[in-house]
Amino acid sequence: MSGSPVLRVNLRSAGKKLVAAGAAVAISVAFIVAGILMLDSFTRGLTQQIEAEAAGSDLIIDTMQLSAWDEDTEEYLRDDIELAEAIEELDGVAVADAIGSGYLSEVSADGSSTIGFEVGEQSETRVGEISQGHQAQAEDEVVVSSAAVEGRGLQLGDTLTAQNFVYEDDAGEGAEPTVEEEDYTVVGVVDTQGAPRGFLTAEGMDRIPFSTSPAEIRVQLDPSADAAQVQAQIQELIPEQAEGLESQRAAELSGLEVQTTEEIVDARMAEQAGSANVLAYLAIGFGSISVFVSGLVISNTFQVLVASRQRTLALLRAIGATATQLKRATLLEGALLGLIGGAAGVVLGAGAALGFSLIARASFAPDLPLATPTVLATVIGLGLGLVVTVLSALLPAIKAGRVSPMAALRPAGLTPASARLSKSRLVIGLLLTLIGFGAVLAAALLATAEDDPLVLPAPLVGVAGAMIGFIGVLLLARLIVPPLAAHGGRLLGLLPGLRVNAPLAGQNARQVPGRTTATASALLVGVTLVGTMMVGASTAQTVLYDELAEQYPVEASIGVMDEDLDADLEASSLVGAHSSAPGAPVTITGSRGSTESQAVLVDEDTFAEVARTEGLAPGPGEAIVSPQLNAEGMVFEGEQPELELTPYGTGSSRAGEQAVTVQARAAAWLPAGMVLISAGSLPEEARMQPLAEDAGPWTFTAEQGITLVRTADGISSAESYGLAPLFQDHTEEFNDSGAVMRASFGETIDMVLLIVLVLLGASVLVAVIGVSNTLSLSVLERRREAALLRAVGMNRRSVGQMITIEALLLAGAALLIGTGLSVFLGWAGVASMAAVPDWTVTVDVPWLRLAMLWGITLLAAALAALLPARALSRVEPAAGLSED
């Protein structure tokens, strides 16, 4: 008998039962194909952008490393200009332009400005078609790129401004800078890819009120010139130009490299490889997870199929089919499923990538090339589908070949498998679990050790250990999952209305431990991964917030204390709490010199509602100072300097005799020049009544005070920048760094978590398909059971309910094990990555998020059981009992 008839028999007996397994293959393949195509689109877009920026030039010299600065004129020493002039004298060189770089901004009527974008000199060495208006001709005209029009909403006639803020050398504390401005009118739009930018005439660049920095030298050659020869001549010329310059300038100039446009593209693509690699790692990593889960689903599907068709296989053996033919037919069935599922996955993945690239072009990346199918993605998709299904069908194929012809004499259906776990499986599972999770624990605990005994980086050890340990858990799952399901059924049986169905469902799960474990394992992978990311993100957020609280215990501070500010802070949704403290003018003297500032009188009550840590107030003889006092040429050096604080006053007021000495510690959250002290640091006579109007030199008033601010919980990164305009309405002396950093870190973690959860959703979806598929196939084994239950009085609703309860029990077992693993792995993952000696990583369990995970998983399991439950409930007693 040939293999083809056996395959046809298998396919007829399987029918629609392979559809769900094929869907699992298609989703997994689609995931990876979409990732490959988006990576290809990103790479092509980046290449086109770099090529467009280099177009029009034959050779380019990146001069951004030239940083020589004239201290007298406070302008860049543009050594690139002289070099460009020398290059233009060489044979074969048509044009050599030294391009500078500056910034223009949009300035509103109230004087506020947007973040500027880069402008450079308009040059014939740059290719770009004017799509609107005309090229810049006058010194006050600017041409902007199409990206500036699309991304910034600019249009012809708009005004852009170059601003320079100048502080006078003898300006006193709090003096406002002089703003120098030059306006430019948008007269044209040039079609170029990349970030928003503008182009000025040479006169327009000279008109910018600040020194423009070197950017690049663009060289255009004569048509007959040999590019390689000219490139070599320029490279030899550069050291000659550096002769006679001071050492630092000479070193920077000599380090310049002449590159062709092709070399520029290759170099800049290499610089951007990190972003591309991140995309590749995400696609491969999460795609692999999805493939692993689908492999479990496919293997489980084929095992149940082989078991359910035992009589058919036995009859084939009885009429002459060999064990090899049965094995080959099962493998061919898997290969066919893999090819069909892989092809469907390629189509789905290509469609998803195309849809995402269209959305990206319409929203945030207008120049991104459309994601189109490639030969590589197609081959990988089809090959992956084929390999995964064939490997997943291997064990079921071996079991199919072992079916005896005598099985044709027995009633069809599954023979209950033994609940006992083989000794080899138990030993291997225990070893892998202990070794793997031991490595995870070692990575978490030893990552911060001074004499780190780990040979490899701690995160790598942790990831490898987690994979090994999880494989061990999957091997041991057969020992854990079926009993859990059975116990869960008995517990549910205590509820009214479930006293019969729930224990039966639990016992059914225990009777077929292989199928039960395989089904729960698919869910276990998804639940563990999602839970680990949730716990890890929450723990990382807590660690970062704790460290931010140490560095920025007060998130914002402003050098004002008045009723108007209090009213604005009370009305702002960005502010959670605030408190104020009075100050007094002082002279601060340290080891480097002295400066005039203000000392603010604080105590524990000042920080009670605004500080993220406790015990922040300085004690007697202590002070908290602004780190700007430790800047170059300022007051002190070192971490805990000794400072002398002298109050303002006259000789008759004995101000000099009232000076106090304090040991200071710097705080990054204070406005420039501020010093915080407690009453215990004051002279005894001033300590008694520091807030009285006649307290002498140490008289603390609201005019010299400070207000401390704690931001509202949950504000976004964009919202945190709203504190600055609020503070600027009152003074320029403020510090909002802590608020911005806290909001930024929280938002970044939430964004990463959202992206990862969406990606992991693919594996969970595949797992749910596996649950539905397994339960659908189990209906074949339970027709006689369902018929018997109906015959003894159980109604259709109760029979269907039994299937749903079994699905929920399997999901519950996966959730219990997965949640425990996720708490451990989430903590260990953060601990191994946060390898800072003084950081303490304490696990933070996001109970609400985990509760949502439980709810979604149980709901998905119930929905997956819907069709199988309905099918089994429709089995008629007579028809079911009449089957062999």
Main sheet summary: 10 strands, mixed
Rg value:
36 Å
Number of domains: 4
Fraction of residues in β-strands: 15-25%
Q: Roughly how many Å apart are the termini?
A: 26 Å
Count the E strands. 21
Separate helix tally:
27
Structural class: alpha+beta
General form: globular
- pLDDT below 50 for ≥5 consecutive residues: which ranges? 412-419
Query: Into which percent range does the helicity of residues fall?
Result: 40-55%
- How confident is the prediction overall: mean pLDDT? 80
Structure in a nutshell:
With 884 residues, this protein is of the alpha+beta class. 54% of the residues lie in helices and 15% in strands.
Characterise this structure.
Residues 412-419 have low confidence and may be disordered. The chain has 27 helices and 21 strands. The strands form three sheets. Strands 1, 4, 5, 6, 7, 8, 9, 10, 11 and 12 form a ten-stranded mixed beta sheet that branches. Strands 14-15-19-16-18-17 form a six-stranded mixed barrel. Strands 2-3 form a two-stranded antiparallel ribbon. It is α+β, with helices and mostly antiparallel strands and 884 residues long. 54% of the residues lie in helices and 15% in strands. The protein folds into four domains: 1-55 and 274-415, no CATH class; 64-255, no CATH class; 458-553 and 736-884, no CATH class; 556-734, no CATH class. It is globular. It is a multi-pass membrane protein. Pfam families: FtsX.
